[in-house]
C-alpha cells in the first residue's frame, strides 16, 4: 500500500510538471508575457526527456530480444501505439488551421481552389516537417516536435532493447554534451537539428 501511494504521488508530480511545462510553452508561443525572449526551449526538452524516461522504463521491464529484426519489430509496434492517440487531435488541428487559411477562398465561392489548398496539409498530417523527406513548415510549425519524436522513437526504442546499455549510455552522454555545446549554432527549422535535439534529450 505504501508503494502504491508513493507511485501515485510521483505520478501526480509528473503531471504537475507536465502541466507547468505545457503552460510555459503555450505562453511562449502566444508571447503574452514576453517569454519569447527567454530560453523556454528547456520546457520542450523536458517533454522529450520525459518520453525518453518512460520509454526506457518500459523496455527495462522487458527481456531483451535476441534477434535484431525482432527488436526492430517491437520498436515499431511501440512507436505506433504511442502515436495513435495523437491522430484525432492532429487531424482536427490541421483541418481548423487549413480552413482558416483558405477562408477567403471559401467566402468568395472558390471551393475548388480552397480544397486544392488542403493538399499542403498531407505532409503535416504524415508528420514529415522535421523529417529528411519533407523540409519546411506550413500552418502548424509546432508540429516539428511530434515529427522529430516520430523519427527518433523507433531508434531510441531499439537502443533501449540493447544488451550493451552501458556503452550506449556513455556514447549518449558524450553526444548530449556536444549537442548542447552547439545549441546556439543550430536551428530547429533544420530537420537534422530537430532530430538530434530529440535524440539528445531522450
Can you offer a commentary on this structure?
By secondary structure, the chain is mostly helical. The protein has 10 helices and no strands. It has helices at residues 2-30, 41-60, 68-83, 86-101, 103-107, 111-116, 121-125, 144-160, 165-181, 191-201. Helix 1 (2-30) packs antiparallel against helix 2 and helix 2 packs across helix 10. The chain is globular and about 60 Å long. The two termini are 31 Å apart. Residues 1-9 have low confidence and may be disordered.
- Mean pLDDT, to the nearest integer, reads 76
Encode the helix/strand succession as letters.
HHHHHHHHHH
- N-to-C terminal Cα separation, in Å? 31 Å
- List segments where confidence is low: pLDDT < 50 over at least 5 consecutive residues: 1-9
Summarize the main sheet.
Answer: none
What structural category characterises the helix and strand content? mainly alpha
- Gyration radius, to the nearest Å? 20 Å
Number of discrete helical segments: 10
Strand content: under 5%
- Outline, from the CA principal axes? globular
How many strand units? 0
The helix fraction, in percent, is over 70%
